[in-house]
């Protein structure tokens, strides 16, 4: 590199800037060397453009996090909060996961009873309704999933719905061996992560196992959120992975080993999660029985 010269491609250096512009325009005119499109990046809705590292006051080094969204269909009969919806439009909770291969082990879906969720239309023809946090809906709108980019088309009257009113929904979720699962309360869900909807895989997630165990053991907790016994008690963890030192029910085994008795054991759960996820990701072997 000839460091005696400046290579700034802005009007600060008009000579080099005009050369680069000329070069790119010539390549574009050739119609086969340059293709314009979209890519995932950190984006600023306020400025209407990508927000790179040097543009941010905080958050340097943060990049896009890719999730797989899982559509969980809400079945009839639906809770009262759904009464205003047209019966011919399918409604889905949409969960975000980093491990879609573990969907075989689902036993339920978790929502935070105190979080605010939104009902909104998706697709160019608004043919489906998703339920997630407003933050998640806005992110989806910039990825071509909603009718208008950067705008959320809410279902009228269901723009802000408290999570506790959505508990106890009967659901159909892909890949699980249970024909029907239910939406249950979980206290550790964060509004600024994912969609606010969590797929529960208690065989391999200590957090999920602890929350499900709380509901199984504590009748008062079930009654507080109008969760019937049939929504919780019949559902047992499904073995899907064999992990060295942790077995085929890694989350169950490590919670018992570490003496984790509640979803409120946050420090122990964080340690358990790190161990299970690390060993499961690198050394787990899928079972062939599901």
TrEMBL record:
Annotated SUPFAM superfamilies: Nucleotidylyl transferase, ValRS/IleRS/LeuRS editing domain
UniProtKB keywords: Aminoacyl-tRNA synthetase, ATP-binding, Ligase, Nucleotide-binding, Protein biosynthesis
Protein name, UniProt field: leucine--tRNA ligase
InterPro entries xref list: Leu-tRNA-synth_Ia_arc/euk, Val/Leu/Ile-tRNA-synth_edit
Native organism: Meloidogyne javanica (Root-knot nematode worm)
Listed EC numbers: 6.1.1.4
Gene Ontology MF annotations: aminoacyl-tRNA deacylase activity; ATP binding; leucine-tRNA ligase activity
Taxonomic superkingdom: Eukaryota
Family designation: Belongs to the class-I aminoacyl-tRNA synthetase family.
Top-tier EC class: ligase
A single GO BP: leucyl-tRNA aminoacylation
